[in-house]
Amino acid sequence: MVKPETLKNINEIRADFPLLNKSIYNRRLVYFDNGATTQKPQCVIDAVSDVYLNYNANIHRGVHTLSDLSSAAYENAREIVRSFINAGKREEIVFTAGTTASINAIAFSFGERYIKPGDEIVISHLEHHANIVPWQMMCQRKKAILRVIPINDNGEIIFDEYLKLLNSRTKLISVSQVSNALGTVLPVRLIIDAAHSADIPVLIDGAQGIQHGVVDVKKMNCDFYVFSGHKIYGPTGIGMLYGKEKYLDELPPYQGGGDMVDKVTFEKTTYNELPFKFEAGTMNYVGAIGLGKALEYVLDIGRDNIAEMEQDLLKHATDKLSAINGIRIFGNSENKIPIISFLIKNIHQYDAGMILDKMGIAVRTGTHCAQPVMDRFGIDGTIRASMCFYNTIEEVDSLVEGIEKVIEMFS
Ligand code: PMP
C-alpha cells in the first residue's frame, strides 16, 4: 500500500498523465507497455513547451539573454540528474540521445583506449540488443572476445558461472540492472564487487532500473551507468551516461564537432573539459530540460513509494495470471520489477496482442529486442505486460479478463 507520506493518491497521479485518459476502440486505455516507453506527466509536457514558447535558444554559445536562460536550464537539468543518481560531480554526467547512444559511446571510446586483441568483455544472456551489438562491433574492431554469463530457468544469471568468466584478460563487464524481457533484477552490487576485486570496471545498463527504485551510483559503485529519459516519464531523444571521472578523463571523445573542443587548428585540436568533451554538436537541450522535470516529478511521488506500488501490482498480476489455465510466465525470479512476460498455450503472441488491443489493452509482443533470451527458452517471443506506478489493480484485472476472452475465442 502507498505510504502515508505520498502526497497524491492514484487518481491524482493518473490525472497528471493526460494520455492515460484516452480511449482506444471505445475502451479506456490500459497502458501496459511502459517497458518500451512511459507516458508523460503534464509538468514535463509543459516544461518542454515552455522552452519553445519562452526561452528557446542554442545553449553555451551566445551572450544574449535567451541563450543564457536555456544554458542555465540545461545545466540545471544536469545537476538534477547528478543528484538523482547521487553522482559525485556534474563533470561525470554526459547527456546523450539515450541508453543505446550511451553504450555505443562507451563501447567505442573504451575500445579505443583500453582494448587489445584477445581481451575479453563480459555481458549476460539477459541483455537487450543495445547491450550486445555495440560490444560485438567493438570486439570485431579490436579483435577482442565477447563472453556471456548464462542464465537459469527462472531467468536469473548464474553467479558462479559469472565468477568463472573473470580472468586477467577481462577488461569490462556490461550488464543490465533489470532485464527488459523478463523483469529480472540482476545482483549488480555483487557483480560489481566481484569485478572490482579483479580491478575490472563495470557498466550498468539502467534503462529498466532507473524508474523502479532508488539508484545511487556511489553506493552501487558502478563505473558507468546509462539510462534513457523516455523510460522515466521524460522526453524521447535524451538520455545520459554517467562515468567515473577517472575513466571519462582518460577516454577519447567518440564524436567530434562544435562545443566539445577547446582549440581547433588544422594541425591539431584540443578538447573541452568534462563533460563537454563528450557533448559534440547541438545537444537536445529541450529534452534534457524535460528530463530534469520528469526526475523532479518522480522525486515528488517518492521513489520508495513508486517501488512499493509497483510491487503490489506485480504480486497481484503474477497471482492472477499464473492462475489462468494455459499461461506460462517466463522470468520467475524472486527479485523482479513489474514486468510479466508470458505465453498462452496454442495461441500466437501476435494474435493475443492484437485482440487485447481491440479491448483497449496495450501490451508488447515479440522478442523485446532480446532475441538471445527468447532462444534460451526456445520461443520466438512473448506477450509482455510492463506496468508502472500509474497503473491500477483494476487494470490488471482487465488484462486478466481480456486474456480469458482471448482463450475463449480460440477454444
Ligand atoms: N537496455 C534495456 C534494458 C532496454 O530495455 C532498452 C529499451 N528497451 C535499451 C537498453 C535501449 O534503450 P533506448 O532504445 O532508449 O536507447
Bound molecules: 4'-deoxy-4'-aminopyridoxal-5'-phosphate
Broad structural category: alpha/beta
Question: What is Rg?
Answer: 22 Å
Q: What's the CATH class label of the largest domain?
A: Alpha Beta
Helix content: 25-40%
- What count of helical segments does DSSP give? 14
Q: Sheet bearing the most strands, described?
A: 7 strands, mixed
Distance between the termini: 38 Å
Q: Tell the overall outline.
A: globular
* Stretches with pLDDT under 50, minimum 5 residues: none
Strand order of the largest sheet: 4-10-9-8-7-5-6
The appropriate CATH architecture of the largest domain is: 3-Layer(aba) Sandwich
Mean pLDDT metric: 97
CATH fold name of the largest domain? Aspartate Aminotransferase, domain 2
Tally of discrete structural domains: 2
Approximately how much beta-strand content do the residues carry? 15-25%
